[in-house]
Amino acid sequence: MSTLFEDHLRSHAAAIAGLGASQHAIAAAGQCIAACLQRGGKVLLCGNGGSAADAQHIAAELVGRYLAERPGLSAIALTTDSSVLTALANDYGYEQVFARQVHALARSGDVFIGISTSGNSASVIAAAGAARATGCHTIGLLGRDGGQLLRRVDQPIVVPSDVTAHIQECHIVIGHIWCALVDDAVLNGPPA
Fold first, then answer.
1. What is the domain partition of the chain in residue ranges?
2. Domain made up of 2-188: CATH architecture
3. Which of 14, 56, 76, 140 has the smallest number of Cβ neighbours within 10 A?
């Protein structure tokens, strides 16, 4: 058991260390999210499987609170309404379940965050295209080599690992960093 634990921690530490080159991109994305929310915009998030859970987790931190008491902020995980998801999948095909919601909910100046460990999720790619067409700023929380989403979002952040679990663990670390940046901006104003 201890070898499994040590191997996991070593692999996770390597994935986190690989993010060092992305720290400026992570901070810039967090500042973009904070600025959008301060203007009264909203953040739309989506992903599949574990990435859907991450989208919901980040949205919950923004709507509720992360570490500091502050007003609730407008964030929507496009993965949560089973009636919408099943109707859209049935009527338009699964690839359109997020894109259709983006067309309905997004406004120019909002932020879209697509989460995909491979960067190749067809439903997230379609949603990123819809978000760009609507005038949203698009952020990709990706893994491996970034996949197709690498070049289809304004700000790609890639966790350089081939292990899905470690990519997801790093994604939630990044999401928490964003929430801390948002808390700071909302409570203390934008950086000078």
1. 2-188
2. 3-Layer(aba) Sandwich (3.40)
3. 14
